[in-house]
Automatic annotation (TrEMBL):
The keyword Signal applies. Pfam families: TctC. This is Tripartite tricarboxylate transporter substrate binding protein. Residues 1-18 form the signal peptide. PROSITE patterns: PROKAR_LIPOPROTEIN. Belongs to the UPF0065 (bug) family. It comes from Sporosarcina quadrami. InterPro entries: BUG, Bug_dom1. Keywords: Signal. It comes from the Bacteria. The keyword Signal applies. CDD domains: PBP2_Bug_TTT.
Amino acid sequence: MKKFILLAFMVVLSVAMAACGKDSDQAGKADADFPKKPITLIVPWSAGGGTDTGARLLQPYLEDELGVTVNVVNKTGGGGWVGWNELANAKSDGYTIGLANSPHIITGYMNPTLKRDKSLDDFVGLGMHVIDPDIIAIRKDENRFSTIEELVAYAKDNKLTVTATGEGTDEHLVILSFNKKYGTQLEAVHFDGAAESRAAVLGGHVDLLVANAGEVLSLYKDKEIKVLGVAASKRSEFMEDVPTFEESGFEIYQESSRGLIAPKGLDPEVLAKLQSALEKAVTNEEHIQKMADLGYGVNYENGEDYMDILKKDEEAVIDLKDLLGW
């Protein structure tokens, strides 16, 4: 009887091991065949903003490299964290990826009042796409000030409302930096994305527009707004007549980096395929030109280097905790 039981156990074990081997072979084949179905690209901001526009410009080139449809899906709210939470909780199979914005993604989990349980450690980098400096702009019919110097002087004695896209975002940091360094009374009004911010300023509901340069280039070219300054160490190649804040005597530097990320735990072969496809898509000369036509400066970095950049951004935010009241 004991021999029979032992024999039966050995048979079951052999079958199980064979099945595991078969499953393993199938898994390897599945990885080799990746991708076999459409991929979802989560954009955590509303349609029409800089992140969304950049994603949709990149989309066809990424599709060409991957050989499948890439569906851009907007998931707005929570300063980007509605989308990032969904991405972090998605199945780590390569079929759900997303756009990250820094410092937004970092300040969104470092803010202690929000009590988020996700961080950079829940993602893996696919590669950087864009770096876009912040600007301050006014409506074309604004008559209280016409230069950044006049604006700062006015704002020392008068409150002004300013657009931003969430607490701790790059726009918000520009506002807080001016208030702390130069005694202005700028009050942030938060929106879900640049499209709503632009509409609020053009409609006269908010005094000042703080946004990324690429998000306002068309308005700037059409003279619907006047850009007063750029928060960078050098002038924007797309707004060469606009001085930097530094040129005007204000040491304010702020930009937004954008790149692609995925949930942690990706199979190495799947990760490598996504990273390779992204590199080829981002560095495609036609894509670079189309981005430039809309005022977006492409700045590719590979996945590992991109995550290192985000970690450095995290360290910079830690240094600004007192400014944010954290």
